[in-house]
C-alpha cells in the first residue's frame, strides 16, 4: 500500500466489522474509517438471540456489543441501513470502489469485508407468515412473540445448533415442540453421530419430539408436510444452515468458494481482507482450509484483519491466523463446548465422564492425532484441551492427559 491508507471501508456492522472498526479507530486515528451495515440496528450480539433474549429474560438493549454512548467514542463513520451492492477492485494499488444500495459509491484504499452469512430458506417459505429463520434481532423478536405465549405448536426444521437452541427455549416456555431432522442424529456436522445421539437424549428426555431421518416434503399454510404425515404448527422455524453473504461480490473478481477465499493472513486481494463467518482461509495449525461460523472466530478475525491491513500498508509482516476454533451452545440446562475440529470419519473416544453422569469429555482424533474435544457440562475438562491442540499431541497422549485432570 505504501504508507498509511487514507480511507478504509468496513462492510458489515456486526461482530467482525465492529472489532475491525475498534482496532482501526485505536491504531490509526488519522485514517478515515467508514462502516457500512445493511441492518438498521447498531452492532448487537447474536448468541443471545436463541438463548436469553428468546426466552424473554433479556431485552434488546442488553445485547448491544457496545453501550450506545460508547459508539460515539469510536472515530468511525457508521452508515446503518445501507448495503454494499457491488465491489470493483482497484485496477492498480489497493482496495477498490464500493457501490452502495442508496445509489452512492465509495472509494477506499483498504477494505474489510465482514458480511457474515444468511440463513438458507426452503422453497416457498416467504409466502407463509408463520415460517421464520433466526439470524437477526428482528427474527428473534418475531419468534419470541409466539413462543412467549406458551401452549403453541412449534415445529423446528433442522437439528443444528440454532434449531436445537430454539427448541429448548420453546419447550421451556411450555410449547409443544417437534424437531425434524433429515440426518440420523442431530448436530452431525458439528459433533458427529455418536455425540449427536447424546444430545438427542437431552432433548427427548425433556419432552421435545425429536424426529431424525425424516424429510420435509413442503411447507403448508398450516404447518409442515412430511412423507405421509402433516405436522400442524402455529410457528415453524427453519434452521437448515447458512450461506456466506457473498452474492454482492459475484462480479468483483474476488475468489468466492463457500466464502471469500483468503490467504493465511485473511488477505483476499491487495488491500482487501475478509473476516468472520464470510471468510475462508487456510489455518496453518490444522493444515486445512476452513470457514468457521462461530463467535470467537469472528471477533478475533475482525481485529486481525484490521491489524494486518495496517501492518501490510506500513511494510510490516502481517500475521497468519492460526487458531484452535472454539464454540459453545446452551440447550436446556446443558452447556456444550467444542475446541478444535471434527469430521464425520474422526475416531471419537469418551475420555472422561458419561451422559449418565451429566458430564462428559469426548476427544476427536484423525490419523492418531488429537483434532478436537467436545464437552458436555465440562468446562474444566474442555478448556485445557486447547493447549493440547496447539501442541498437536497424539490422541493417546491426549487421553492420558485427561486422566490427570481428575
Ligand atoms: P454476522 O454476525 O452475520 O454479521 C454480518 C453483518 O453484515 C450483518 O449485520 C449483515 O446484515 C451485514 N451485511 C451482509 N451483507 C451486507 C452488505 N452487502 N453490505 C453491508 N452489510 C451487509 N456462535 C458461538 O460461538 N456460540 C453460540 O452460542 C452462538 N449462537 C448463535 C445464535 C444465533 C441465533 C446466531 C444467528 C449465531 C450464533 N453464533 C454463535 C454465531 C455467531 O453469532 C456468528 O459467528 C457471528 O455473529 C459472526 O459474526 P460476523 O460479524 O462474521 O457476521
Given as residue ranges, the uncertain stretches (5+ residues, pLDDT < 50) are: none
In terms of DSSP E residues, the strand content is: 25-35%
- How does the major sheet shape up? 6 strands, mixed
Which word captures the global form?
A: globular
Radius of gyration over C-alpha positions, nearest whole angstrom? 22 Å
Counting DSSP E segments of at least 2 residues, the number of strands comes to 27
Structural class: alpha/beta
Strand order of the largest sheet: 3-2-1-7-20-19
Mean pLDDT: 96
Listed once per kind, the bound small molecules are:
flavin-adenine dinucleotide
In which range does the helix fraction lie?
10-25%
Q: What is the rounded distance between the termini?
A: 53 Å
- The helix count comes to 9
Q: In terms of quaternary structure, what is this?
A: single chain
Task: Characterise the protein shown here.
This protein is of the alpha/beta class and 406 residues long. 24% of the residues lie in helices and 31% in strands. It contains 9 helices and 27 strands. The chain has helices at 15-27, 68-71, 137-147, 161-172, 188-205, 295-313, 379-382, 385-390, 395-403; strands spanning 7-11, 32-37, 77-80, 84-89, 96-100, 105-108, 110-113, 117-119, 131-132, 153-157, 176-181, 209-212, 216-220, 223-226, 229-232, 235-238, 242-244, 260-261, 267-269, 272-274, 279-283, 288-290, 326-331, 334-340, 347-354, 359-366, 369-376. The strands form 7 sheets. It has a 6-stranded mixed β-sheet, with helices on one face. Helix 1 packs parallel to helix 6. It is globular. The protein starts with 6 loop residues before the first strand and ends with a helix. Residues 11-17, 36-39, 46-47, 49-50, 83-84, 114-117, 134-135, 162, 245, 248, 276-277, 293-295, 298, 327-329 line the site of flavin-adenine dinucleotide.
